[in-house]
Amino acid sequence: MTTDLIAHLRTTVHGSVVTPDDPSWDQERLAWHLLVPQQPAAIVHVDGVEDIQAAVRAAGAFGVKVAAQPRGHGATADTATGTILLRFDRLRGIERRDDVVRVEPGVQWRELNAVLEGTGYTALPGSNGDTSVIGYSVGGGLSWFSRKYGQAAHQIRAIDLVDAEGNHRTVTADSDPDLFWAVRGGGGEFGIVTALELQLQAEEQVYGGRLIWPAEHGRELLRAFAAVSDDAPEELSVWAWLMNLPDVDLVPEPMRGRWWIAIDVAFLGDGDDAEKLLAPLYDVAAPAFGELAVVPLGQVGSIAQEPEDPMPAMGRIRLLNEFGGEAIDTLLDLMLDGPTPIAMIEVRRLGGAFARPRPGDGAAGVIEEPYLLLAGALAMAPGDADEIENAFHNLHTGMGRFLSDRVPPNLATVEPIEQLYPVETLERLRAIKRQVDPQDVIRGNHPVL
Ligand SMILES: Cc1cc2nc3c(=O)[nH]c(=O)nc-3n(C[C@H](O)[C@H](O)[C@H](O)COP(=O)(O)OP(=O)(O)OC[C@H]3O[C@@H](n4cnc5c(N)ncnc54)[C@H](O)[C@@H]3O)c2cc1C
Fold first, then answer.
1. Which CATH fold topology does 94-202+423-436 show?
2. Using one digit for the tens of pLDDT, what is the confidence trace for 121-151?
3. pLDDT of 248 over the 90 cut
4. Ligand 1 binding pocket mutation candidate from 73, 180, 429 (most atoms within 8 A of CB)
5. pTM of the model
6. Top-level CATH class of 206-411?
7. ∠355-360-366 over CA atoms, to 5°?
8. Which of 133, 177, 265, 386 could form a disulfide with 208 if both were Cys (CB 3.0 to 4.6 A apart)?
9. Which CATH class for the 2-87 domain?
10. Ligand 1 residue neighbourhood (C-beta within 6 Å)
11. Where are the domains of the chain?
12. Counting Cβ atoms within 10 Å, is residue 83 exposed (0-12), middle (13-18) or buried (19+)?
């Protein structure tokens, strides 16, 4: 059957069809998350909308699933096994008309940010320039600027997609209110998006960057971070990191083999105003490294200095109900007292428009919890993954009383779908999925059924 499917794809698709016989297969089938096992039936590098239609129709006819995977930053074990995996590296169109931009599915955030630089407008990018604009936006999209403007999914104004029957159509709030709601936060389960129209925001300048202190200042610094971020205007996003830098040549010599605290800043406005708001951080101690400056929009995806190349990375996220003195002490005790395979902890301040419902919002809804806790590690050797899983478990057990059960869909890894959406949202997503894709042909990273 797979042979027939591949032969069929080869005759109906204009782009390239990569299969297990190809010498490049083991490279091609990898997601950004190198540890996620991926054994698709075939990979299609689509040349245009017709190729997407052909792949979706083939999936329906041959009883397999079809999944969009532009970069695989959100890949899960559910995405790829036995599926036709679509890659969009050839579809990179970006068209701006005043305060609306239309992007194709291969466009990455670093490209869109660069195109918008100097226009006086911004979209709502996240921390990593390598992720695709569409993959990020359909899963919610937690942006540096979401405290002011909400999640990126809510900025979607129109969706062009190929539906489960292979029809290409435009979906808007007026044409298909339920489907329009579902795609804006429900992920890749409701159609293969061929273009999104996004509302842009008029913003002149981003001021920010990364400041780094030795971990000895951790308790005072994280208290100052919590105070600064609790009082911050919605224009200011501040994220705190605990970074456990390995003793390897790749790390600059003075930073090797110890813990550091980093504070990342993105402020929509003037540098002097930002520095005044951040003064309590400098009062703790002068940073050992880093300074803040105007950040060209094209560089916003680099503030957090996250890896962009594929990694054997493992991550575990929880939302935090609070991040006060007790939570800070608990976190530092758990992380700094003794060896751990966890390489970094990130605490992001949410709040503001994240938590504010607005009429017409999509399935991404609101995030009421004020902070997000992200733990990350690299599994470089066999056996590392088990040790890292234990460390994540211990972290969540230790921090248990401060954690919420919910995980934003974009950042979910192994959690069941019930943890990603409130009950009524998930019920509505499931009803819409059964209606628009009754054969369950289209597969996202987090299947709703
Ligand atoms: C280092 C790192 C940093 C991150 N930072 C942030 C952050 O700041 N904010 C945030 O919100 N998230 C963040 N994420 C999560 C990331 O944004 C999501 O995992 C995002 O979905 C990844 O985009 P991608 O292009 O790699 O998508 P993939 O993992 O390839 O796809 C993601 C999902 O989108 C669907 N999808 C993609 N394209 C289409 C399409 N054309 N049509 C239909 N469905 C589609 C897929 O089916 C899949 O379900 C981060 C992840 C990593 C690894």
1. 3.30.465
2. 999 999 999 999 999 999 999 999 999 999 9
3. no
4. 73
5. 0.96
6. alpha beta
7. 20
8. 265
9. alpha beta
10. 32, 67-75, 105, 126-128, 131-132, 134-136, 138-142, 187-188, 192-193, 306, 410-411, 444-445
11. 2-87, 94-202+423-436, 206-411
12. buried
